[in-house]
Design brief:
CATH superfamily of the largest domain: Response regulator
Largest sheet: 6 strands, parallel
Strand content: 15-25%
Radius of gyration: 24 Å
CATH topology of the largest domain: Rossmann fold
Helix content: 40-55%
Length: 340
């Protein structure tokens, strides 16, 4: 006579129910679907933005699609944006390479009920809900003040940036120039140096050849730092080098004396914070603070470089550094309207 099977089946059922109850609540939730479209891929800056976005996606159970054209191409970026609108998104984030071309794409997204945010470079003429970025004017002015302390109130400053036109580039230049008001400094540029690293270096070589009497060469975008440090090393120059977002290579150049001062935009946060905000808005019903949301930037001097090398190596070291930074600066609710 065989043994009765009912108790075994009951035991299995209880075990299955217990297992389901043990699954974390987040794992049982449907993922929030978010698209993120950058103005260009293949450069260190947007690679760090992607790291931040993917870290937030992991923390908040987000199905993230991160994309963008391999070279600056506004029409191609909009095409990728529009393609994502067909994939049942909850929210979308974009970096506006050209702020003047986004009014209609943003309208199309809003008509579909999609939350639209900008990050790093805003498109304020659109109906996007909010912008997440740094104080570009303030960082430019901070960089200018540091350069002024190094060169004084006269001399020639050559400016360059990889793309001319995006709003933060304009604001950085305005802030930088403001630091020299009332001086006899002569500005040259900005030169458009492009995003490709090889072409960028070649363009800076040409700019230097035409301005060998320059007191300072200043990059207003992240790709400039490594080019300028290499140029100063190659020519044995005594000009000041200043730029944005040094990255690992730029930090090593600072340690070797070829880059004098940089300011950082914390590009990781341009990825992490808007994804965090959309995920929590969708899942918790929180409102996103409309308009401009500015997170901290950083001044980086040569004596700071060694301590930041590990962070800029990327991977888990960068994630851990920014986890601590977000906690220390209370950024878990950044850009959200949270009742006390």
């Amino acid at each position: 006579m065989s043994k009765p099977r009912k108790p075994i089946r009951l035991f299995i059922l209880i075990a299955l129910v217990a297992g389901l109850l043990a699954v974390p609540a987040q794992a049982q939730e449907e993922p929030v679907r978010i698209g993120y479209v950058v103005h260009v891929t293949g450069i260190e800056f947007t690679a760090i933005v992607e790291e931040g976005a993917r870290a937030a996606a992991e923390d908040y159970n987000v199905d993230l699609v991160f994309t963008g054209p391999p070279a600056v191409d506004h029409a191609a970026q909009i095409a990728e944006f529009d393609a994502l609108l067909e994939t049942d998104l909850d929210g979308i984030v974009f970096i506006a390479g050209d702020p003047s071309v986004w009014e209609e794409p943003v309208r199309r997204a809003i008509e579909r009920g999609i939350i639209v945010l900008t990050a790093d470079a805003d498109a304020p003429n659109t109906d996007r809900l909010a912008f997440f970025g740094v104080d570009a004017y303030g960082l430019g002015q901070m960089l200018g003040e540091q350069v002024r302390a190094l060169i004084g109130d006269s001399g020639k400053i050559v400016l360059g940036e990889c793309v001319i036109g995006p709003e933060p580039h304009v604001l950085r230049e305005e802030g930088f120039r403001a630091a020299f008001e009332g001086t006899d400094v002569e500005f040259v540029g900005p030169y458009e140096t492009v995003c490709d690293a090889t072409q960028n270096f070649n363009n800076w070589q040409s700019a230097y050849t035409a301005n060998q009497d320059a007191a300072a060469l200043v990059g207003l975008t992240a790709v400039e730092t490594a080019s300028l440090g290499r140029l100063k090393q190659d020519v044995g120059g005594d000009f000041v080098v200043a730029s944005f977002d040094p990255g690992a290579e730029g930090l090593r150049q600072m340690m070797d004396g070829y880059v004098d001062v940089t300011v950082g935009q914390n590009p990781y946060l341009a990825g992490y914070l808007p994804v965090q905000a959309i995920a929590r808005a969708v899942r918790e019903g929180l409102a996103i603070n409309p308009g401009v949301n500015l997170y901290p930037g950083e001044l980086i001097l040569p004596q700071d470089a060694e301590a930041l090398i590990e962070r800029e190596s990327g991977g888990q070291a960068r994630v851990a550094w920014y986890d601590a930074f977000i906690e220390e600066n209370g950024l878990q609710d950044f850009g959200l309207v949270v009742e006390d």
